[in-house]
């Protein structure tokens, strides 16, 4: 069992998938953790298994939900050492045909909520001279993704913001890391309308929520800037870095039209 340098934690999107797995790994390591999501029943099921866990039911698509989490993160009497911005979703389909309100909700959660909570965390942690901020992005952040355009754009924002904060906070005692997973079997496929990916992509393309969560927690503990779990996705990210942008974009567009 890994031992972590964090003494307390807060994880958003802890009711399923990668966030729930991070919560369990923190619980097994004895780190008291605040679990955030909309489905309180799912959060309570996890919280009951570990000492010192608590539940904060919040809809991060609303200002009130974001404010509640920012207040918890900024509380100086009960400081939170590790903040994980993990809640997020995607929308698969042709941009022109998608519902504008749903896309707005996606930006609200993936970008605005993450930015406001990161701001509250960075402020509190910089004042204390210590802390850990882990933002869950995606390998989609390194490449425009026709067919998943808004999602990839929100994650490009997350990776860029996180890299900048890592540098701004260098030397302050605050660790900031972007976790960039590839395909991971969770409820994400159901919620982003990408369940067909399970038949399209071979088994070796899928990473587990367990290994992704472990890589993220280990990476932020070690103050890595970007963590890409799995050899396949590490290789793809390096390849996309050295592939001419126009060519990579065209390939991505072709891959998307084959899936349709
Ligand atoms: N799975 C993949 O292939 C993959 C790949 C790369 C990156 N990621 C990223 O990994 C992160 C976790 O996703 P996952 O794969 O674990 O998907 P998931 O199983 O669908 O989990 C998403 C979590 O976000 C929470 N959430 C969604 N909307 C919310 C809202 N408005 N307010 C509060 N919480 C909300 C959900 O909880 P409630 O529904 O209970 O609110 C759930 O706990 C996301 O940021 C995703 O973009 C996933």
Describe it for me?
The structure is a single chain. The protein is built from ten helices and seven strands. The chain is of the alpha/beta class and 260 residues long. It has one domain (9-259): Rossmann fold (3-Layer(aba) Sandwich). It has a seven-stranded parallel β-sheet, with helices on both faces. Strand 1 (9-12), helix 1 and strand 2 form a beta-alpha-beta unit. The radius of gyration is 18 Å and the shape is globular. The chain starts with 8 loop residues before the first strand and ends with a helix. The relative contact order is 0.13. The model has no long low-confidence stretch (mean pLDDT 94). NADP nicotinamide-adenine-dinucleotide phosphate binds next to helix 1 and helix 6.
